[in-house]
Amino acid sequence: MAENDHEPQAIRAEALESLLIEKGLLTADAIDDVIVRYSERVGPMNGASVVARAWSDPEFRSRLLEDGTSAIKEFSFEGGQVEKLVVVENTEKVHNAIVCTLCSCYPWAVLGLPPKWYKDPQYRSRIVSEPRTVLKEMGLDLPADVEIRIWDSSAEVRYMVLPRQPELSIGKSDEELAQLVTRNSMIGVESL
Ligand code: FE
């Protein structure tokens, strides 16, 4: 597994980090740089620009839904974890959300670092067993006739949600559209 946040590993990582800093082999700044790189630069704005393009360009949207891995290569994003990316589209009748039930697999290159709750065992089990309730608790109250599909990420396949475009945003530029797209909407726990 590429990244794994089971408790013992997290403790080991912290111990290793402290030791490397203590021995002068690594600085806390260097670690912060990596975190900033993934949370701000590589982060969710990459996914947001993919969504904006899909909203404004129907041909790209088709390519993206057919083969997400190839379609996002057009963007030359840095950051990994998208060796196989599947993009799932929300519609009026179908709502998608992503999870990694086993650990915390997540499409880093398009969404940045996973939020803390994504790694929480509660989210990982309950989004599968009671998705409607969990989404409601997170502020997304879906109509009863909307089907919810949960996609379980793995080391082999990562998922990203293509949220529905807000009606009032039709005709805006890709830059303006990207501003509307939130990380959580691409995980599928929020609507726009
Ligand atoms: Fe995982």
Q: Mean pLDDT, nearest integer?
A: 89
CATH homology superfamily name of the largest domain: Nitrile hydratase alpha /Thiocyanate hydrolase gamma
Spatial order of strands in the largest sheet: 1-4
Radius of gyration: 18 Å
Tally of structural domains: 2
Distance between the termini: 32 Å
| Class computed from helices, strands and strand pairing | mainly alpha
Poorly predicted runs are: 1-5
The CATH topology annotation of the largest domain reads as: Nitrile Hydratase, Chain A
Instruction: Let me know the largest β-sheet.
Output: 2 strands, parallel
Would you list the SSEs in sequence order as H and E? Answer: HHHHHEEHHHEEHH
DSSP, total strands: 4
| Range of helix content | 40-55%
* CATH architectural designation of the largest domain: Alpha-Beta Complex
Q: Bound small molecules, which ones?
A: fe (iii) ion
Strand content: 5-15%
